[in-house]
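Hi L.,

You mentioned the student needs an example of a multi-chain input paired with its predicted structure. This one should do, with 686 residues in total across all chains.
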Amino acid sequence: MSIMIDTGNYIAAKAAIMAKPDVVAAYPITPQTTLVEGIAKYVETGEYKGEYICVESEHSAMAACIGASAVGVRTFTGTSSHGLLLMHEMLHWAALARLPVIMCNINRVIGPGWNIWSDENDSISQRDTGWIQFYCSSNQEIFDTIIQSFKLGENEKISLPVMISYNAFILSHTSMPVNVPKQKEIDDFLPKRKPKWELDVNNPITFGNIILPGEYEKVRKEMQVAHNNALKLIPEIAKDWKKRFGRFHGDLLEFYKCEEPDYILLSMGAIGAESKVAIDNLQKNGFKVGLARVRTFRPFPQEEIIKLGKKADLIVIDRNISPGMEGVVFTEVKSSLYGKSDAKTYGFIAGLGGKDVTYNDIENICKKVINKKAKDFEWYGLEEM
Amino acid sequence: MPIKDLPVEEYYIPGSAACPGCPATMAMRTVFKALGKNMMMVVPACCTAVIESLHPNTSFNIPTMNIAFEAAAAGASGVEAALRKQGKTDTTVVAWAGDGGTYDIGIQALSGALERRTNFIYICYNNQIYSNTGIQRSGATPYGAWTTTTVGGKREFRKEMGEIVLAHHIPYVAQACISYPEDLYNKVKKAKAIKGPKYIEILAPCPPGWRFGMEKTVEMGTLAVETGAWALYEYENEKMTFNGRSKLILEKKVERKPVEEWIKYQGRFRHLFAPEKDDKSIKEIQNHIDQIWERYRSCYL
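Structure written out for the whole complex:
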């Protein structure tokens, strides 16, 4: 074990190469750029021994990862915002082909206008592609989640691509100390990939040809089963990681001071980390508010949300918006609770366009609910339009 | 190699869902024979996605992966990189795409893969239309041709994709035609032996798309070459060589037949002949072909 002090992107690059992917294919985009530069540096130093394809677009990055993964090898890429949107078609392709491509997405705003700061609309709008989605709140969590994601996605009961999202600049360009295990420890944790299917000249198959409705529906059902399996496997992997390395960031969710709350705050990513300060302050002042930080957005932890709804009312902060509806996590939470709990739910939109969300803001949100001044759903800090 | 001496092994096997007289299947059969068992193929959306038969069956005895329309060259880049990492550098990686997937939606990924010196063979079977979606215009559709999106005949000339590829200065670029299987076989064989990106484009006259009888596929290819509407050439080590009939045409050892001899058999040009003959448009087509050959002579003779 050694300590590395670096930005989220360079930590992600380190984690990625320690997982020893055979092929990396990537295209630069702010704020992911230093991640691909980090990997390029490891190519130069010889620390990364795999193939690194500098493709001409994100669409091709994902297509190349799909091609490589289909040959049975381990693949990695990273992107952000418009890059992720350009990949959209291939995200579906990777998931339906059941290829465990592992990808970091640095959550960045979608234009116009051009804005390189952080919100989650890029990855949230990839919700239905079939990818497993994690949201991280620290550089250590980025490192640990990347390694864990290879083990998860490549598991034969899963065989799904995994997206590890973290906030633009707040994490991607902020240095933090991170515990980095020895290479041997990572190798022991992460076995070689055993593909579910592969292109092999000695066993020629045709993959992805025309499929009739009845067969296709089964493919979709199998994907759903794989996501359900992930709900069980994610906690197992997190537990194993804790045993080996002594670190735990939560499994599907991370709970913080959630013992006997009147209210539980739900949030994702860096707002989740900031929320801990808010919770400390609120509890110091006698407000019984706990925190449940959603780590796994897909599969969505419905059972855990129902348990939360049975012990407290829920406050959800979304750094994303589904226009014409509301914050997406808020919708998912209510959908999970329907008919299973009488908990009241309050949804807030905060931090779009990279607007700073401080612990003061989070405390204000919680106090508004506690003081019965909150609506069911509102935009924090914006006047009525 | 004479056609009777081609390998007897068949990797294009029964069960295909191709139309009768399909040129893509003719091309594929020859390409597979030239490359043999040790190959992998990436196929974007195109007629081949139908030809290869329905899941869980296949008409290919070659490992094949279907990929999105614009992604053939990028997907093949990934396959090639993975094989290289595994030390399996003797396996030939083929991207097999139609003209839509090559000239139009896939040109970016193709250009990127060529510039990156990907060690693969990109094969475009060019039937001059989006045939799989039911005969719409592509960047390869010739001037004057009817398609369902150029109902009165296309008003633009086709691109010279081979020369766009040539500008990437890759080790091997060739144009072939299904009517000349020995030439095609030799070109694929040659490409297989060369390291780096290779591009082979095969003219593939499509009976339902061009509106001619299914027994005339080979004849339509032959006439395309004889009229100079299509050229057989190969570009190797920065040197261009025209092949067979096209060489004779380039060197003016034989006359090009008038293009009318080719288009008059194709229903897609019927509006140029009936109810009244449209001499002006036919002349436009002929002039364009004349210009292409003048350029070929000035550049490559």
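You could point out the following to them. Residues 2-245 of chain A form a domain with the Rossmann fold fold (CATH 3.40.50.970). The interface with chain B takes residues 22-23, 25, 50-51, 53-57, 59-61, 63-73, 75, 89-90, 93, 199-201, 203-212, 215 of chain A (CB under 8 Å).

Best wishes,
N.
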